[in-house]
Design brief:
46% helix
Length: 171
């Protein structure tokens, strides 16, 4: 990730498949940077949550209004900065967010499917069933060259993951 001028705080999407730690890492990162945090799951309409809870993956038509709401949140933050956790699995979804917030950075939380599945299996109180994890890995398009951001390992603890992201911001 590239550094920002001192007067501008970063806008960051913490991305990855369900169970990769986006909510935990996103909240910790926002606190360390002193910027607002938003959880993209909170922007889903009830129909999307019901569809996922029933074990059916979302399609692009389901995601479009959700992504637009997240994009508005990012655009409203502007130079004040902010962090949002959002799967942003496909390049076209990231492009849609980036169009609303030029200079947007992505922190891709990367881990082996077995590690993520174990974490997802231990999670309680979330609408996303573990059965959809495979479809998320199938849909995942890793960050490409030319996309501002960094891929960070989730193999360690949350603090080390946040540290990796902050180190990449400093570069």
């Amino acid at each position: 990730m590239t550094a920002r001028p001192a007067a501008t705080l970063p806008l960051i999407v913490v991305m990855g498949v369900s169970g990769s730690g986006k909510t935990t890492i996103g909240g910790m990162l926002a606190a360390r940077l002193g910027v607002p945090y938003a959880e993209a799951d909170d922007f889903h309409p009830a129909a999307n949550i019901a569809k996922m809870a029933a074990g059916r993956p979302l399609d692009d038509a389901d995601r479009a209004p959700w992504l637009d709401t997240i994009a508005r949140w990012l655009a409203d933050r502007g130079p004040r900065g902010g962090v949002v956790s959002c799967s942003a699995l496909r390049r076209r979804y990231r492009d849609r967010l980036r169009a609303a917030a030029p200079g947007l950075l992505f922190a891709h939380l990367d881990g082996a499917p077995e590690l993520v599945a174990a974490r997802l299996g231990a999670r309680t109180g979330h609408f996303m069933p573990a059965g959809l994890l495979e479809s998320q890995f199938e849909a995942l398009e890793p960050l490409e060259s030319g996309e501002a951001g960094a891929v960070v390992s989730i193999d360690g603890d949350a603090e080390s993951t946040v540290r990796q992201i902050l180190e990449s911001l400093a570069r």
